[in-house]
Specification:
173 residues, alpha+beta, Immunoglobulin-like, four-stranded antiparallel β-sheet, 2 helices, 11 strands, binds copper (II) ion
């Protein structure tokens, strides 16, 4: 009797262990699903946007400028303006903040004495313009731009006869 009892107990214990095994496996967490995601470019430049300041000759002008410091050291300026007279307008970077007089640091018009990089701001019949220029680092470095001592001006006329500044966009740090 004792021997038979012991054997039976051993079998029951063995079954108990066997029965445990599948339960343990079931507790193993399922493999995590990996969602493929597009990682953003590590050094993607983040543009900053400034509001334009209308001049006395274009008090109703509105617009903004997007400043993007590219990874190659150049700086892209994208100017969107409304409320100007149709036609080509000279524009350039002054070495002075808006509201302050200063010499032209970088011409952005491709004609005349002030010829430099880029093209004039061409305003359509609706009074709006969208102009973009990339300023090479050797014309104006990003360190210079971050001083806050520069601004973009759009003038009433062409580079041959510029007239007054009608719009200023501050190049903020
Ligand atoms: Cu000017």
């Amino acid at each position: 009797m004792r021997t038979a009892f012991t054997r039976t107990a051993s079998i029951v214990l063995a079954l108990a262990f066997v029965a445990c095994a599948p339960g343990d496996e079931a507790e193993t967490p399922p493999a995590e699903e990996t969602t493929p995601e597009m990682a953003p470019p590590a050094m993607a430049p983040v543009p900053r946007t400034v509001m334009i300041v209308p001049g006395a000759d274009a008090p109703t002008a509105t617009g903004e400028m997007r400043i993007t410091e590219n990874t190659d050291g150049s700086t892209e300026l994208n100017l969107v303006v409304n409320g100007l007279t149709a036609g080509d307008h000279a524009w350039h970077i002054h070495s002075a903040p808006c509201g302050t007089d200063g010499p032209i640091a970088v011409p952005i018009t491709s004609a005349g004495d002030q010829a430099g990089i880029g093209n004039p701001v061409t305003v359509g019949e609706d009074g709006s313009a969208n102009a973009t220029v990339t300023i090479p680092a050797d014309r104006l470095s990003q360190d210079q731009i971050r001083t806050g001592q520069f601004s973009v001006h759009v003038h009433a006329g062409t580079v041959e006869e510029m007239g007054a500044s009608v719009v200023c966009a501050p190049i903020t740090p």
